[in-house]
């Protein structure tokens, strides 16, 4: 699966579709081990592809150990070694990182698969598209029955084409925290995602309820979460009658350091901002440090809400945070894939968004009594508000 820099030709896509169909038929038992596959010429006639294309597909299947050639007899589905856990579902999981954000997602996946008696095989792409392709191939070679994938759609030259490649895999795939948002109802993927747009919207709603009218946004720009956060933020400003052109402090993650935070804070204060939403926790902590250096008090002079809630609770001033439902998201993604494996095409297509929760802590000043708006605050421990689910089946 390559072709993000140079999109695959129509002939290449037809070849991949044929490969996917053949591998699916072998793995799901349409052609049981030892059964004979159609001849190259018969399959070419049936599919409308050239004999050369069919021959190439069979040769690739031989290389993968899925079929074997018998001189003068034909092509046969290979006998695969019996696993000690015969009949047990094996699910491949691909994440870009195992140290930040995704550990809780993985915990949810592991719990659901264990409860169903399924086994997990984990791979990590490290945000590298080539490693992502290689990892998917390794998972398929391991004999997985289905895939839970966090692909690099946001960095693909053609996200729609990349999604087509994933949909053509020989086993069912459910995307996690990824979807083709720009395609609207044309998105064909099965996915479970956090409603980041709704999370940003709820943060602005909370700050507006506390009396803030000039609200800024601080974001790192090199993440798939940025676009929906900016969209939800802008929508909330309009819905709540707030000024629609507050300062946006935007930069790539690598450039967010104390100096950059000092400049961002100066711009926010010069614009009369009294509250800000920061994506993510690291950037919010940097703004918190910049406020301390500038003699600004949080939340009195500047209320802050962070986005991600990975370590917001251990900041020097515990940060109110938008908290994606990572554990629940992992469990639901696993449930949907297991249902797809059990029911096949009879299962409805799941396209699910889970609304994040707002965990209120000291940095927004909501519970300081007589402050802006009088909304309760649970201090460092925090409490949750919100948390709805939207499902399109």
Topology:
Elements: H1 10-27, H2 40-47, H3 51-63, E1 67-70, E2 74-77, E3 90-95, H4 102-115, E4 119-124, H5 129-141, E5 146-149, H6 159-167, E6 173-176, E7 191-194, H7 196-209, E8 215-220, H8 226-239, E9 248-251, H9 258-270, E10 275-279, H10 281-294, E11 303-307, E12 320-323, H11 326-343, E13 351-354, E14 357-359, E15 384-385, E16 389-392
Parallel strand pairs: 3-4, 3-5, 5-6, 6-7, 7-13, 8-9, 8-10, 10-11, 11-12
Antiparallel strand pairs: 1-2, 12-14, 13-16, 14-15
Helix pairs in contact: 1-3, 2-3, 4-11, 7-8, 9-10
**Tally the helices: what do you get?**
11
**Topology as a string of helices (H) and strands (E):** HHHEEEHEHEHEEHEHEHEHEEHEEEE
The description of the largest β-sheet is: 7 strands, mixed
- The proportion of strand residues reads 15-25%
Number of strands: 16
Structural class: alpha/beta
- Quote the average pLDDT: 86
Query: Low-confidence parts, pLDDT < 50 over ≥5 residues?
Result: 1-8, 82-86, 368-387, 389-393
User: What radius of gyration results from the CA coordinates?
Assistant: 25 Å
General form: elongated
Walk across the major sheet and give the strand order: 4-3-5-6-7-13-16
Helix content: 25-40%
Give the end-to-end Cα distance, rounded to a whole number of Å.
Answer: 28 Å
